[in-house]
């Protein structure tokens, strides 16, 4: 990747020109020059999604008004499917504006079947996880018929679309509020994928379950308990990966499901900081010891909680994973960790009193505090 490359620059004049040439090759009446000129002068200030939307709008203006005819032309420009288990690189972003086109202009009832075909062809080359969501909202019954069928598709990307497209809280997409309220339809669908042979699909299933766990922890725990008896290594991996939020929350049923006893017998000692004040932009280091108070070995999930001071002066906790460890009986283990307050775009820090707390198998042990200063 070139130095100074911005993610939004995957949509650049070269891509627009290439798209125009491909379309004109299969549809000679397509005005590739006008298509190019309607997009390229406007690209520079736009974000990635805005550039995709601009290309989508220009496609609509330059393709035939009949949706079926326009989709026939677009599908005719597609290359052969590459047999890969996971997508990588930026080449696939070529299809993002086309997926957007389907989700915006293909929502009429008479176009439903055509749109489903188009989304499948796109997802084999890129992804339709965002584009399918308007169809789930508008035509839930018809779309779920397709989703169940796709769950058995031979193509790994089609199967992944089933789980990724139904995630209630898919990143960079609008939430599916109906599934936040009642995720039962999604959970039933994920049953079809719980023993998928591909990690790419299983990771998506786990992420979907982790989304649901944020609103319905007990439902997800019940699902994972049912899956625990399945003698399939991939299914057991899903259980572990899907439990991230449940374990951070210290829910006893989730901890015990993963082999972390809630009645763990340990003590936390020597919880100390390397300094009492931390300047904004610097880091602070904390250390502590865990001593077993049991004869037998114990599985430990060690987390730490930072109680960040907010603009209001109140604190808000955030849990971070630290270690998974099997601690032999009557033994001690020491930990040391740096916490950074480097200025980043994804988190804003405020000066004031902060606290660090240790959590082991869902239980909290002791606090230390320090002052974050400008």
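Sequence proposed for the structure above (374 residues):
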């Amino acid at each position: 990747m070139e130095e100074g490359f911005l993610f939004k620059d995957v949509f650049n004049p070269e891509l627009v020109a290439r798209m125009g040439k491909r379309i004109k090759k299969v549809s000679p009446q397509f005005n590739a020059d006008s298509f190019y000129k309607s997009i390229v002068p406007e690209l520079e200030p736009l974000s990635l999604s805005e550039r995709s939307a601009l290309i989508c709008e220009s496609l609509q203006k330059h393709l035939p008004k009949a949706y079926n005819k326009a989709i026939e032309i677009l599908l005719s420009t597609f290359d052969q499917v590459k047999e890969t288990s996971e997508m990588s690189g930026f080449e696939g972003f070529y299809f993002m504006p086309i997926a957007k086109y389907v989700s915006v202009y293909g929502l009429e009832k008479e176009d439903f079947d055509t749109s489903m075909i188009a989304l499948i062809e796109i997802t084999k080359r890129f992804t339709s996880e965002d584009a399918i969501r308007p169809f789930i909202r508008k035509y839930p019954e018809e779309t779920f018929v397709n989703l169940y069928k796709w769950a058995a598709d031979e193509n790994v990307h089609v199967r992944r679309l089933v789980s990724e497209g139904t995630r209630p809280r898919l990143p960079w997409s609008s939430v599916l509020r109906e599934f936040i309220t009642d995720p039962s339809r999604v959970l039933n669908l994920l049953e079809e994928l719980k023993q998928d042979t591909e990690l790419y699909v299983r990771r998506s299933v786990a992420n979907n379950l982790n989304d649901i766990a944020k609103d319905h922890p007990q439902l997800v725990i019940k699902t994972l308990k049912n899956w625990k008896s399945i003698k399939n290594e991939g299914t057991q991996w899903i259980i572990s990966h899907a439990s991230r939020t449940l374990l951070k929350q210290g829910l006893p049923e989730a901890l015990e499901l993963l082999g972390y006893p809630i009645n763990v017998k340990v003590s936390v000692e020597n919880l100390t900081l390397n300094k009492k004040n931390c300047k904004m932009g610097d880091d602070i280091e904390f250390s502590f010891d865990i001593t077993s108070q049991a004869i037998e070995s114990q599985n430990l999930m060690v987390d730490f909680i930072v109680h960040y001071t907010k603009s209001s002066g109140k604190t808000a906790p955030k849990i971070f994973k630290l270690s998974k460890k099997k601690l032999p009986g009557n033994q001690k283990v020491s930990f040391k960790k740096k916490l950074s307050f480097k200025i980043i775009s994804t988190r804003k820090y405020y000066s004031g009193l902060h606290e660090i707390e240790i959590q082991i198998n869902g239980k909290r042990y002791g606090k230390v505090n320090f002052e974050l200063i400008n």
